[in-house]
Amino acid sequence: MRPARVALLALAISTPGFALAEEAAKPDPTYLPELLAAAGNRSLSEDRSWLRLGHWRKRLLGGWESEADGPGLFLSPQGKRDPAAELEATLNGFFAEGDGAPVGPKLGDPSLEHPQCRFPARFAWLAATLRIDLARLPPRSCPRFEAFWRRVSARSATLVFSSYYLNNPASAFGHIFLRLGKEELASGGERLDLIDQAVDFAAVTNTSNAILYAFEGLFGFFRGEFSARPYFYKVREYADYESRDLWEYELSLDERQLAMLVGHLWELGQTWFDYYYVTENCSYHVLGALEAADSNLELLSHLGPATLPADSVKALFANPGLVRAVRFRASARTQLAARTAGLSGTDLDAVQRLAEGRDSAALDATSTPERVRVIDAALDLVDVRHGRDIVTGADPAADVLRQRLLEKRSAIGVPSPPLVIPPPSAGGPERGHGSMRFGLGAMTSREDGSALLVEGRLALHDLADPPAGFSPRTQIEFFKLRLSVADRRRALRLEEASLVEVTSLNPIERFERRISWKLRVGATRVVDDGCHGCVAGMLAVGGGPGIVSAGGAFSAALTADAELLAAPELSGLSGSGVRPGVGPGVLLRLLGTDRVALVGTGSWRWLPLASPRTSYELSVEARVHLGAISLAARWRKAPRAEDVGLVLLIYRG
Amino acid sequence: MRRAQWVVIAFILSAGIARADENPAAHGKSTYGLAGCGLGSMIFGDQKGWIQVLAATTNGTFGTQTFGISSGTSNCVESSGTQGARTFIEGNREALAKDAARGSGETIVTLSAVAGCKDAKAVGAVLQKRFAQLFPGEKTAVDQVSENVIKELRSNSSLACGKIG
């Protein structure tokens, strides 16, 4: 009897002191009909634990369908749509002759393994629920599963949220994965999380064409698969080379639930799910796996139509007591900020010189602890600037620079004191407002009189939304719509629609001079003399220097903008319906605690070969946040619009 | 107008492809990180240009086969014994080099535990002292670095690293 089986079975079977049969024992064929009858009597195929183990969901027109798209999760050919047939096939399969382990080349094909070995979580659950007599249905030995079990050695499970970090627009919505903790401690008492296993659900991609990639990701053309690797690969990839802070939520699962989780992840490893970037994504299936491990959890029901990683963190907190510890792992940039925080101006000069490959005469004259602090900071700066290029070999010069600095540091021969970084005061994603937003309000304009305003947004955050749990530097919005009904016209009118709208405010700082930028794709109602209030498709980009005060209370950016509007009625470039425009843009934002936000924007456009030749727009929005709702007051001025509006905004998960 | 659209689309498409060609690691022109369990091959190896950005955005990954739950046959998942130490050193090469130069840090504590060494502080001091020999820079193959470090831990009997034979 190997440890994995002992553990899984012992935990699953509540009857104490049951006897385990010998390895070579044969199953008793007369037992199968008894079990099938018992399962039928108790309608086990409709039991929510069983349905969760097979990831079956109710279909719109009745019946069931599993979200699993690969054949590996089913023993019955009808398994995907028939939980009862799958239950029968599973019990049947458990009685199969032979050992659990095919040898030789067959080892690579999991579908040839004994069903008990392919479905350890099902086996454990059925054994417990039907009180299976293991003398009559002897468990098989499953070397491959047992190897996985040992590799994982799970004593805790932690959901890890890889942050949508301010500085990295690539990590737009964040990522979710599991860390199965061994809970081993070093001799000095330090945690050894790095050697835990991280289990991940991700799209397996096969195209290097960016456009195809985005398309296939959105519409479910990629397969999503579960994989497991040492956690340090994740820490290096996300925290070091993508500079994303990691938030860790340790779950209070008991031993039995942990065993079910590991067993079920093994089952999931044999199949794939079509990957939908917005819905059936990493968050969705990681939560689905947790629900299968513990049928009392309610996680997926807390998710909205778009499944965002931040929402899955909130879903954890919707189950009281589920999160038993929260930890924060600082990204490379956060570490750099902590290392430079206490340094003097001269020290910072030295850091900069060292990180650029120059020597610092002033440094050699200073005390040992000071030199250590400066070189340590310079090393972090080199990694923030060149880390990834060094690893991929794209920048050999940076590697030489880093190596020289490392040797200089090692020559000092004194250990660096540990760097302790508290979690950021804005908090983790669980503190963030709901990602969906609805708004209802009224406005009055010189042109149209009073009007009713209705608006909605699928996700995620704009610069005036409540700042807790979000980066103060990033706006990222998907699918935003704003409509109005004016008293005089009595017709619904589109004011604004955005497919995507992003603003990334990056302060020009001593060590990182990155520009702030913005992007918007969507449609807007034209508010100058280009047409009579027509709606035009819009593509707008802009970039320029910005400042963000520490904590984000004050920020500003000055950008050079370019935009393209297109509508049939628009008198654009040489009379066509396409109107390019260029000009400056300005953005100012003030945050007063977590309660009040004020955002002002202004833009001026030169419209070459179009009529009119110029345009402008000014706007100010003030928002007061009151829990799950906010009140917004807006003012706008453009050549053919001047309006004031008041809107009640409601945030939902 | 229509022609202009196609030019723009063609430009965007070709930009994506051109960027792809810039990553030498993706085309085997570079020796960096392509052996062993280093990040170069395990994480960044065949991701290209714009795709890296998109992969990060959409949480995509290239070829998870090495890390497949039921198909994973890679050595790079081990976490104990000599192979565990080797995997750890290779997967954390750059971070470990930095901690070694600093004489302390999480990767040193973890490596000490994986290798069964008695005292992480002593390991940190040895790695720092012997830094230049053990970590000669990225042009050295990653498996050479792990070999160096393991040999050092083994040969220094005062460290008593009991799990790497």
Quick description:
With 653 residues, chain A is α+β, with helices and mostly antiparallel strands. Chain A has helices at 3-12, 31-41, 48-53, 83-94, 115-118, 120-129, 143-152, 210-218, 231-241, 255-268, 282-293, 309-317, 332-341, 345-355, 361-364, 368-392, 396-412, and strands spanning 56-58, 64-66, 156-162, 175-181, 197-205, 222-230, 246-251, 273-275, 323-329, 436-445, 449-461, 474-486, 492-504, 516-525, 535-544, 546-548, 554-566, 578-592, 596-606, 614-626, 629-638, 641-652. Chain B is an all-alpha fold and 165 residues long.
Topology:
The complex is a heterodimer of chains A (653) and B (165).
Chain A: H1 3-12, H2 31-41, H3 48-53, E1 56-58, E2 64-66, H4 83-94, H5 115-118, H6 120-129, H7 143-152, E3 156-162, E4 175-181, E5 197-205, H8 210-218, E6 222-230, H9 231-241, E7 246-251, H10 255-268, E8 273-275, H11 282-293, H12 309-317, E9 323-329, H13 332-341, H14 345-355, H15 361-364, H16 368-392, H17 396-412, E10 436-445, E11 449-461, E12 474-486, E13 492-504, E14 516-525, E15 535-544, E16 546-548, E17 554-566, E18 578-592, E19 596-606, E20 614-626, E21 629-638, E22 641-652
Antiparallel strand pairs in A: 1-2, 3-4, 3-7, 4-5, 5-6, 6-8, 7-9, 10-11, 10-22, 11-12, 12-13, 13-14, 14-15, 15-17, 16-17, 17-18, 18-19, 19-20, 20-21, 21-22
Helix pairs in contact in A: 1-6, 1-10, 2-4, 6-10, 10-11, 13-16, 14-16, 16-17
Chain B: H1 2-22, H2 39-42, H3 49-58, E1 60-62, H4 81-91, H5 93-102, H6 106-115, H7 120-129, H8 131-134, H9 142-155
Helix pairs in contact in B: 4-9, 5-7, 6-7
